[in-house]
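TASK: fixed-backbone design
INPUT:
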């Protein structure tokens, strides 16, 4: 069996109008701040800004591991993006969840251990809908590549997606990963581990669905 190459193209699609407004929480909200010393505000001369959507799920962890192994280069800047729901009136600026700082710190540490030569930053944004919030954050950060973990969907859902079309199905609640792939202004990849027995990953782009990439 021939192993498929894993080098990704370095280009951005045409920009689109943002669909949502997101904002970062204040520094006193309990989230890990960016390190003041040695903080990477910009990638290297030949580097890119790679944004990876994270959450406590195993799906997101698989996406991070794939991106670090197959997409991120030494001179790139990695931004771990976490989206939270807007706080209700009277509850403060952001959700007060003590698990969030520990989770983000652990994810950042994992990236630094696996790729110590790459600078890693964390960003937390608010958004009523996760898909539009991610797309807007990637546009605002001028990311060159957006990586989103994708859950395995049922056969019925996949048939509906094929019948309705990617953009229509995503708008109707087809999934966050599908929405980001179809609407991001930069190159966006949805990543899902195929299976423990078979191995490899399934990669979805705007033009290619479930492309099997051996790893």
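OUTPUT:
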């Amino acid at each position: 069996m021939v192993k498929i190459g894993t080098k990704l193209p370095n280009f951005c699609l045409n920009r689109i109008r943002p669909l949502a407004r997101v904002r970062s929480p204040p520094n006193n909200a309990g989230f890990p701040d960016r390190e003041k010393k040695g903080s990477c505000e910009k990638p290297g001369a030949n580097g890119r800004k790679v944004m990876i959507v994270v959450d406590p799920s195993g799906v997101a962890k698989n996406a991070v591991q794939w991106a670090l192994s197959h997409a991120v280069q030494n001179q790139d800047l990695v931004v771990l993006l976490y989206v939270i729901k807007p706080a209700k009136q009277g509850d403060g600026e952001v959700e007060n969840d003590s698990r969030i700082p520990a989770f983000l710190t652990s994810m950042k540490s994992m990236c630094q251990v696996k790729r110590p030569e790459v600078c890693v930053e964390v960003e937390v944004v608010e958004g009523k809908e996760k898909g539009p919030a991610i797309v807007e954050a990637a546009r605002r950060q001028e990311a060159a590549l957006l990586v989103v973990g994708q859950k395995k969907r049922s056969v019925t859902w996949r048939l509906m997606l094929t019948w309705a079309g990617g953009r229509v199905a995503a708008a109707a609640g087809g999934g966050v990963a599908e929405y980001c792939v179809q609407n991001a202004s930069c190159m966006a990849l949805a990543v899902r581990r195929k299976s423990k027995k078979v191995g490899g990953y399934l990669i979805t782009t705007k033009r290619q669905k479930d492309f099997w990439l051996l790893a």
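COMMENT: DSSP finds six helices and seven strands in the chain.
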